[in-house]
């Protein structure tokens, strides 16, 4: 019997029916406490007395509730009202994949993206011991944030998924969709996606879900079902004996890697399939990251394996062999082939048991285009440089480069320059001892010229300097033009003559950063153009940069400082480079271009408990949400939202309803780091309307933002507002002293004074609730850790025990409990820790203890006033796995010009 609109089940008010299945009726309802719409699945009353059915219902609840994942429908609650048992689930708005496929096949890029999301959801379920057993297009919802895997009502944990079970035909409606679905009407609709072992009545494991995923991927790419039959018997016969029609015949534009993967998923013998959903996800992400055009042999082939570790190792090996063969072919003498060369892209995945940094400034191709140097962390967390010849199968680490970053090559390709531990260093590619050449407290790139000069930026602000590649005195090369408002020069690159160099100037102005060319020993330099990234020299008269999220190649005359010819579009830029002016790629003198395979993913807000577990998702609009700042009363949060590759804006989020409204009236590269006044009525934040990042203040009631402090200083990151409302703390780089912490009066003269100043990098500045103490971070001891000093002073500073981070880790966030008895913080290594504090006139604290470690999908974190929960921005679209893209023969595009 259907429930009438207005019926109450606990705090939930029934609105309309959505559908029914063998395990329950489904309704749209309203949560009267939180004011949100939900889906409620009710166990029919005529089955309530059946102990076995009720037990299965409870098992279904436990099954679904264990699967917190952005691509799995969320279980909010479970309850009982009188004799009625019910589940409260996320109400998913969108259309089913089945409905979308009625319109035809999906574009290849969408197949790869959505397929990877479905595989990721299955991987999460399988790791929890849950098999879906009814994966089909009708159980996949397409929403604004991507795919959602629905209805685990047939999961193994419910005990209802036997191949011959009579309930299968009834369970063809998803329990949580926002619109009724058309039932398939017969048991054939379920058989379409069943694995052979299920049809034979054998015990099926997670690999049966992978078969179903293969069927779904085939249908997404071709618009046709993999197996069809006029009758139930003919359909089962096709599944057991036939091979689907080649995808390349039905969808010629499908990537070859996708067809190979689907073929491996549809192997009749489960032992011959890809063995884990995790491996499927990686294969799809690699195929997506490789882009168009696909290179012969460039995609990692799918190898059958018994277990994730072996499959991963085989995937690495196949990818390495393919890359080596393609590289060897490219590295052959140019006279071997005639005519234009086809552009090709190859992928270098992460080394086994290591993790790439993923930043383009951490990757460099050798001048001859034969070897890639990059930064990666090994399984122990040690960060160092690695080198990988293109014709080799594996990369090797370089001992002596620990904590290294920003690598660049010597002109002969025999040595690498890099920065580590506040120093500029060099090391031979074949190994040996790293030599210190100069101080570089906060470097921003370097380049090695043919004449033996190394030019580098030792600080976040200021100009470029040079030193001999043997070490010695450091001298100025070019300084910022203060009359033109320049604050920093960064990321130099030499032309082949070793005398001319290019570089980028900051801050960003209308049209982008300044791209310049200069000559050593000559104070003059020429502004070539404005762009979104530093220039990378690709020859005597050619550089590569980024404009409007596109990689472009541009010819120029170094002597006259003029551009020659029109820019050539090389395709989408690999990563949003932001407001730092970093280069978008690395290019060899022989025309090999490398960049990182990555992109910004859509995120959502979610609440975490003190163990780091997701307890609730907030329904924000789709977007790239990043920084989080929670109001003192925990009722609102300010979250930055990325608009494009460089600009962000602030949004105000009601934490009870999840409703979000735009707060900042403009967007800019540095719109972030919002802090709340103690009464929660005003907000201070940084935005760069004039180029430098200045501090603005804006009332919460909708008034206009007004500048609080402006200066030529490039970066000003705000951190906290004092409990008495009189000061705001912020950090900024100071030439010759790295970063320091400043106090900015809010109501008086608004002239900042140094709060923490020294030769080290110091930042942050968080006030204790009683206003007695100021906590900040510093790398004074060689690594970042938290320090505390009396406020306003006087008194000595002291480190807080147990807060030291890893050698290259820094502090990403810090939060006081409102009673002053606890301080929580997170390092860039993702570890969230807690310090117990006894409030008073003297500092008394316990040693920091671990709370939890956040996953790589968490972008930012904010703590509530009692530190019982944390608000996180979490990626809901999995980016491709970290990898290096090698782009060959891209210069052919220039010949047409």
CATH homologous superfamily classification of the largest domain? TolB, C-terminal domain
**Class based on secondary structure composition and strand pairing:** alpha+beta
CATH topology of the largest domain: Neuraminidase
Rounded Rg: 29 Å
Distance between the termini: 73 Å
Number of domains: 3
What is the molecular shape? globular
Strand order of the largest sheet: 38-37-36-35-34-56-55
Low-confidence stretches: 153-189, 292-322, 328-339
CATH architecture descriptor of the largest domain: 6 Propeller
Please state the average pLDDT score: 81
Helix content: 10-25%
CATH C-level of the largest domain? Mainly Beta
Please report which band the strand proportion falls in: under 5%, 5-15%, 15-25%, 25-35%, 35-45% or over 45%: 35-45%
Which helices and strands occur, and which strands form pairs?
Elements (H helix, E strand, L loop, with lengths): L7 E2 L2 E10 L2 E8 L4 E7 L2 H4 L2 H15 L9 E7 L2 E7 L4 E2 H5 L6 H20 L12 E4 L2 E4 L38 H4 L4 H4 L6 H17 L9 H10 L5 H4 L5 H10 L11 H14 L17 H23 L13 E6 L4 E3 L6 E3 L5 E8 L4 E7 L6 E2 L7 E5 L5 E6 L2 E6 L6 E5 L6 E3 L4 E4 L7 E5 L6 E4 L9 E7 L5 E10 L2 E8 L5 E7 L4 E4 L2 E6 L2 E8 L4 E11 L13 E2 L5 E4 L6 E6 L5 E17 L5 E7 L5 E7 L5 E3 L9 E5 L5 E6 L6 E6 L6 E4 L7 E5 L5 E8 L3 E8 L7 E4 L5 E6 L5 E6 L6 E6 L7 E2 L11 E6 L5 E6 L3 E6 L12 E5 L4 E6 L6 E6 L7 E6 L3 H4 L2
